[in-house]
Structure formats: C-alpha cells, structure tokens
C-alpha cells in the first residue's frame, strides 16, 4: 500500500511538516508500518525516508557510522540508504541507484538477495508457526540438524543452533571447555589476524588489538600465534606444556576473512590437525564466513582434507533471509552435554523460521551447485583482478582469494578507500571502510553471473585507470612542490 493511500494526504503532510522528533512513538510506528507496507514510494516519500534514516543514525544509533562509509562521501555528501533488493545480485537505494553487490553482506548473501526458495519457505513457516513453544519438540530443528550432519565432514553429527557467528563460536569454546575440563586442559590457541566475533568469549579468540584493548582482561588462557606458521604454533604449545598448561582447543578460520582473505600454505591445516591429535587438543574450525559454498566447496576445510572436531557456521546459513548459526560436533565431544542439555541454551536459537531458511538455503546450494559456480566464476573474476593487479602495480600489491572469497590488497589505505568509493559511485558495492580499506574484500552472491563478473572487471579497470592517473598527477605535484623548498 502506498504511504499516501494508507493514511491520506493529511498524515503524510503531518510527517513531512514536522520534525521526526515531534512524532509520538505511536505515530512513528505508524509511519514505519506505512513504509514497510509500501511497495513503491514517491520521490517525496523517498526523500523523507532518506532524511529520517540519516537523522536516526546520527541521533539515535551512532553518528560514527555515518563517517566511515564510502556511501557518505562518494555521492556528494549524502549517505546512501538502502531500499530493496532488485534481483539476486543487485540492490537499490532510496535514490533509485542500483548496485551490483560484490560485498554480499560480508558473505551472508551466498544464495543471492531474496532468493525465492528461501523467502517462500520462511513465508510459509511464518504463517504456520514463526517461533517454537519452547516445550514441544520442534520438527524443523531436527530436520536441519539431520541435514547438516549429512553435509558436514566426517563424524560431525550433533548441532547446536544459535543466532549469530559469535554465538556459534561462543558455543564451540564452551563445548571445548566442558569436554576438556576432566582432562585438565583449559587453554586455547588462536591466530593473529583472526576474527571470531566480539562477545567476551569470542573476542578472546579474535586478535585485532583495537577491538580487544578496552575490554581487558578477557577470558584467560588464550594465546595467539602467527596464522599459517605451524612452527610458531608448535613453539607456543611447547611453551604452554613447559608451564603445565594444557591446550583445550585450537581455533582457526581455514581462510582468514576479516583479516583480509589470508590463505594459509596448503599443508598448514593438515599440520594443525596432526598437532591437535598429538597433544589431545580439539580443532575448532570457524567457517562462519568460508562455509556454505563460499570458497568453491561446501566447507573450506574440504580443500585441505581436514576434519575439525567442532565446526562453526553462520552468515550464509540463513540464506540472507534469517539469522541462524550452527555449532556442529561429533558425538564423542557433544555427548558431554547429553546429561544436561540446558548447560548451554538460547531462546531463539534454531527457531522454526530460521531453520526453514537454512533448510531452503542448503536446498538451493545443492540444487544449483553454487559451490561449483563459486569455483568457476570465482576463478574467472580472480584472474581478471590479478591481471589488473599486474597492470597497476603502483596501486595494487596483490589480488588473491578462493572461490568467491577474494581481496584486492592496495599499497595503502587511502588508495583502497578511493577505489571502494569510486566503485560505489559506478554502482558496484565492495567492502572497504574509511579506516580499513587497504585490503578491499570482494564477496558477491555465488549467483553472480559471468556477465556481471565481466561488468565488475570493466568497472575495476576504469577506476584503476582513473586512480592511477591521479597518483601520477599527485606525485608530479609533490615533486614540483618539494622543488620549491
Ligand atoms: C562474521 C564472523 C563472525 C561473527 O559472526 P556474527 O554473525 O557477526 O556474530 C565469526 N567468525 C567469522 C570467521 C566471521 O567471519
């Protein structure tokens, strides 16, 4: 329903003529419902929605968010406000600009935006029973767990469901602790550059100093070693052993995502697996970002022939429609929770709508073999990016990735940010924020077409040519300026 049609010109005029702060909470909820019910908005209404959103962020969410976005500075000082998905691989803002999504919500939109199979399943479940009674057994949770057990490598047969990647990591850490407590092993090894979430437990495994510093002391017993360096890990294990400190688990992303798409040497994960077996530590693989087909296999660990003891999934698991996470472990490990399943629980984890979304998502991933699509189209895109990197070595240090998890590493943060902004202006959404753009991630929906890959490459080429001519210009100016002194 149109905003105007629903409430008449009077309500629209009312909200257009009054600052939003003077709306009562009842009026502002009515206004929001009007927007939600609207399929199309007039340009006046779109302008209003734009203004309300920017003011809302500035005054009630966090003005800091406005500063860091390329969508703020690039379009002449406005922040782009999203309005709707326009196809599996594109979205539109409130000004009618369309973007090819090469950010993919940092990996959540693997089956595309509003994938009809996922939306339909969630819609059906929404009308049947959106959330569970908390007492009777909920069928979709059982069906999803069974499906994931069949999909996950090896003996990973038992699932705990949560609502976010952070929760899946939190559950994995707690499960490892419960399992290892009788063995007197309480410590964890994680890696530098790792990202596992920001709750106090998950943050203890996350490495980035700025996220950790204000929250010290974190959970004790976490040690960080260099990612990809098995000798560093062995040295840390020996150092802990010398102090009588047992390692409960080693936690890793098979490929570091937030850390800038860092691929380990091919023999790294098998070596970590062997080390875990040697010292009786559990291997937790955080595939929150790399899982569900992203890297060209259903799970990235399959590239390396390694089976973890605990596997963490989230992001794409809900098909870009519902938030859901899973922590999957073998019976040997998970059975420590059999006596008391209430030792670790969450009200909304594994709810019927989320499970419906995950089941439909897995159906689409398998039906369309999106993992293989990611491998094939990912290789095409990456090869194009690597050619660009070769042509513009003064701008780009490296283009790397696996499947549709890719990154362009620039020579410096400013160049990366300028690249991300220019791409945005040209209608391609890539990662890269003001203070974190040296490595720009490219994580499109796995449904991105070859034609769209080609279009993206053409935009990349244009932007790099432009930036490169600017760099030459700047260095000439700098030289001439320095000659004046
Ligand atoms: C995003 C991410 C998380 C955190 O997931 P949230 O859903 O944001 O809580 C954890 N681990 C990895 C590897 C991630 O990429």
Automatic annotation (TrEMBL):
Its cofactor is pyridoxal 5'-phosphate. Its EC number is 2.6.1.82. Gene3D superfamilies: Aspartate Aminotransferase, domain 1 (3.90.1150.10), Type I PLP-dependent aspartate aminotransferase-like (Major domain) (3.40.640.10). Keywords: Aminotransferase, Pyridoxal phosphate, Transferase. SUPFAM superfamilies: PLP-dependent transferases. The keyword Lipid metabolism does not apply. It comes from the Bacteria. Belongs to the class-III pyridoxal-phosphate-dependent aminotransferase family. This is Putrescine aminotransferase. It comes from Rosenbergiella australiborealis. The lineage of its organism: Bacteria, Pseudomonadati, Pseudomonadota, Gammaproteobacteria, Enterobacterales.
């Amino acid at each position: 329903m149109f905003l105007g049609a629903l409430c008449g010109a009077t309500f629209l005029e009312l909200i257009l003529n009054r600052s939003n702060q003077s709306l009562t909470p009842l009026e502002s909820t009515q206004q929001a419902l009007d927007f939600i019910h609207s399929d199309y908005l007039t340009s006046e209404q779109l302008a209003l929605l734009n203004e309300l959103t920017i003011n809302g962020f500035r005054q009630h969410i966090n003005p800091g968010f406005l500063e860091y976005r390329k969508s703020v500075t690039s379009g002449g000082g406005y922040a782009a406000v999203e309005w709707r998905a326009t196809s599996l691989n594109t979205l539109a803002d409130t000004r009618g600009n369309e973007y090819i999504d090469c950010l993919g919500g940092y990996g959540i939109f693997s089956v595309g935006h509003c994938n009809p199979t996922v939306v339909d399943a969630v819609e059906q479940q929404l009308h049947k029973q959106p959330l569970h009674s908390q007492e009777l057994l909920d069928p979709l949770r059982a069906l999803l767990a069974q499906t994931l057990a069949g999909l996950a490598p090896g003996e990973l047969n038992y699932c705990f469901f949560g609502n976010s990647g952070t929760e899946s990591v939190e559950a994995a850490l707690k499960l490892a602790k419960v399992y290892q407590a009788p063995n007197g092993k309480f410590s964890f090894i994680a890696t530098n550059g790792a990202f596992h979430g920001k709750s106090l437990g998950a943050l203890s495994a996350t490495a980035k100093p700025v996220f950790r510093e204000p929250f010290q002391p974190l959970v004790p017993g976490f040690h960080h070693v260099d990612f990809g360096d098995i000798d560093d890990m062995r040295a840390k294990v020996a150092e802990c052993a010398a102090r009588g400190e047992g390692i409960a688990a080693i936690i890793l992303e098979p490929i570091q995502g937030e850390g800038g798409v860092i691929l380990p040497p091919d023999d790294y994960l098998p070596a970590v697996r062997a080390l875990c077996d040697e010292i009786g530590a559990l291997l937790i693989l955080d595939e929150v970002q790399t899982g569900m087909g992203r890297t060209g296999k259903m799970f990235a660990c399959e590239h390396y022939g390694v089976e973890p003891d605990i596997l963490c999934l989230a992001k794409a698991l809900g098909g870009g429609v519902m938030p859901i996470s899973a922590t999957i472990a073998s019976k040997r490990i998970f059975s420590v929770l059999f006596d008391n399943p209430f030792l670790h629980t969450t009200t909304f984890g594994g709810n019927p709508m989320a499970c419906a979304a995950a089941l439909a998502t897995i159906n689409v991933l398998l039906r369309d073999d999106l993992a293989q699509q990611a491998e094939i189209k990912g290789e095409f895109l990456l090869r194009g990016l690597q050619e660009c990197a070769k042509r513009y070595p003064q701008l780009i240090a490296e283009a790397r990735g696996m499947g549709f998890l890719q990154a362009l590493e620039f020579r410096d943060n400013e160049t990366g940010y300028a690249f991300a902004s220019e791409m945005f202006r040209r209608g391609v959404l890539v990662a890269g924020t003001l203070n974190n753009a040296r490595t720009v991630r490219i994580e499109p929906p796995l449904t991105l077409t070859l034609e769209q890959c080609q279009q993206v490459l053409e935009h990349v080429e244009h932007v790099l040519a432009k930036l490169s001519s600017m760099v030459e210009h700047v260095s000439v100016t700098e030289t001439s300026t320095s000659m004046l002194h």
